[in-house]
Amino acid sequence: MRIKDKVALVTGGSRGIGRAICVRLAEEGAKVAIADILEDEARKTADDILAAGGQAQVVKTDVTQLGQVQACVRQVTDTWGAIDVLVNNAGWDKIEPFLNSAPETWEKVIAINLRGPIHFCHTVAAQMAERGQGKIISISSDAGRVGSTGEAVYSACKAGIIGFSKTLARELARAKINVNVVCPGPTDTALLQQVSSGEKGAKIIDAMTRAVPFRRLGQPEEIANAVAFFASPDADFVTGQVLSVSGGLTMTG
Ligand SMILES: NC(=O)c1ccc[n+]([C@@H]2O[C@H](COP(=O)([O-])OP(=O)(O)OC[C@H]3O[C@@H](n4cnc5c(N)ncnc54)[C@H](O)[C@@H]3O)[C@@H](O)[C@H]2O)c1
Prior knowledge:
By secondary structure, the protein is α/β, with parallel strands linked by helices. Helix content is 50%, strand content 15%. It has a 7-stranded parallel beta sheet with strand order 3-2-1-4-5-6-7, with helices on both faces. Nicotinamide-adenine-dinucleotide binds at residues 11-12, 14-18, 36-38, 61-64, 89-92, 112, 139, 141, 184, 186-187, 189-192.
């Protein structure tokens, strides 16, 4: 157990990659707070952690609402003292050509994927800086590194998370806070099924899989492995880094 008794706050921990991150961090000994809009599913993740002998709590939170984010951080801090690890994982996308997309969709994509992590980082990093310790890990995407057809605004947000995290890594190093980014490639989750449903969707998934040198989708647990590394003391001297976990889909220098 590499992060025994540390407090980890994971956004979007109800299902998919976020759920796998919550379970894995709990296995590493962390107390896990799950911030998500899907309260029932979040409760299921928490119950599974409790059943395995871990500690978990659910805080229903919409990452797009700064007031809710502040209340969430207050609740977790009041119950467990402080937050040692923040994982910005909540995300959302709608795959469509940019020229067909509507301003309401841009707003939703930006609010969840970009403003959400900004809200959480601003709120949590303040208390981490006071304590002179902390790990922040944000889930971006290979779309943010190299672009992805049908995901223009999402890619902009995910690229934004990379620049934002590198800047925070520089600003917060003196407070001994590590800030790193994990970029999944196509990963087998509800989000992937949702954005690529139907016959056309099956073709998109097939094309995505063929583009991966390992010729398969990623599993949520494989993303969680990378998060567990960044959250652990093994990564104490690692900051401002971007790690793709995508079977070799992107190999940027
Ligand atoms: N699945 C993939 O292929 C893939 C690839 C690259 C990056 N990602 C990224 O990984 C992360 C997790 O994606 P996933 O595939 O597990 O998706 P998912 O849809 O299965 O899970 C996303 C979670 O985020 C939560 N969420 C959405 N909007 C929220 C909001 N406003 N406030 C709080 N919670 C909210 C959802 O309720 C859900 O529990 C996202 O950031 C996504 O962009 C996924």
